[in-house]
Specification:
heterodimer, A: 113 residues, mainly beta, 11 strands, globular, B: seven-stranded mixed sheet, four-stranded antiparallel sheet
C-alpha cells in the first residue's frame, strides 16, 4: 500500500523567499509521485509528476521537486515566492499501473508582502 | 473543452434525504473518480470507475453509491444523508492509470 506524509500543515513565507514543502512517501514498489495545487474554492490542478524518469522534475509556475529514493522524499520547492502562490498544496502517490492516488493531508501556503 | 464539470455547486440536505451528484467530462477519459475533501485529511477516494459500466469501491465507500452508464458521466448518490457526509466532493478523470487526473470545481454539501 502507498501513503504520503506532508510535514507541516501551514507554511508562511515572505514574498521573494524560498518555498519548501515537504513530502515523504511509503510504497512497497517504485512509486509515481505528484504535486497538486488547489486555489481557494477551486479544484486541484497538477503542478508536476514523477514517473521514474529524471529525478529532478520541473513543473508549472516555477516549481520543481526532487525524487530521493534513499530518503523516500519528494519535496517541492520554488526559489522565489509570489503572492499568487498562496494556495493549498497536496502531495500524492500511486503505484505503477495502479490508477488510485493516495493524497497527503495538504499544506497551506501563505505569502507575506 | 469544458474539462470536468460538476452539478450542483452547493447543496444543503436534511438528515435522511437523498441526492445525486453529477460529474461530466468531455475529454473521452476512461477513468473517473469521486473524492471527498475534509479539513486536515486531504482527499479520500470514495468510488472509482475504469470504464463505462464498471465501478469499484475506494477508501471510504460506505453510504455512497455510484453509476457509470455513459463514458462521459459518473454519478454519486447518497441514499440517506448523514451529517458525517458534510464535505466538499470532487470528481476527477484520467486517460489512464498513471496519467494526470483532471479535477472538477467541487460540490460543497452540507447535511443538517
Amino acid at each position: 500500500a502507498q501513503s504520503v506524509t506532508q510535514l507541516g500543515s501551514h507554511v508562511s513565507v515572505s514574498e521573494g523567499a524560498l518555498v519548501l514543502l515537504r513530502c515523504n512517501y511509503s510504497s512497497s514498489v517504485p512509486p509515481y509521485l505528484f504535486w497538486y495545487v488547489q486555489y481557494p474554492n477551486q479544484g486541484l490542478q497538477l503542478l508536476l509528476k514523477y514517473t521514474s524518469a529524471a529525478t529532478l522534475v520541473k513543473g508549472i509556475n516555477g516549481f520543481e521537486a526532487e525524487f530521493k529514493k534513499s530518503e523516500t522524499s519528494f519535496h517541492l520547492t520554488k526559489p522565489s515566492a509570489h503572492m499568487s502562490d498562496a494556495a493549498e498544496y497536496f502531495c500524492a502517490v500511486s503505484a505503477p499501473h495502479d490508477y488510485k492516488l493516495s493524497f497527503g493531508a495538504g499544506t497551506t501556503v501563505t505569502v507575506r508582502a | 473543452n469544458a474539462g470536468v464539470t460538476q452539478t450542483p455547486k452547493f447543496r444543503v440536505l436534511k438528515t435522511g434525504q437523498s441526492m445525486t451528484l453529477l460529474c461530466a467530462q468531455d475529454m473521452n477519459h476512461e477513468y473517473m473518480y469521486w473524492y471527498r475533501q475534509d479539513p486536515g485529511m486531504g482527499l479520500r477516494l470514495i468510488h472509482y470507475s475504469v470504464g463505462e459500466g464498471t465501478t469499484a469501491k475506494g477508501e471510504v465507500p460506505d453510504g455512497y453509491n455510484v453509476s457509470r452508464l455513459k463514458k462521459q458521466n459518473f454519478l454519486l448518490g447518497l441514499e440517506s444523508a448523514a451529517p458525517s457526509q458534510t464535505s466538499v466532493y470532487f470528481c476527477a478523470s484520467s486517460r489512464g492509470g498513471y496519467n494526470e487526473q483532471f479535477f472538477g470545481p467541487g460540490t460543497r454539501l452540507t447535511v443538517l
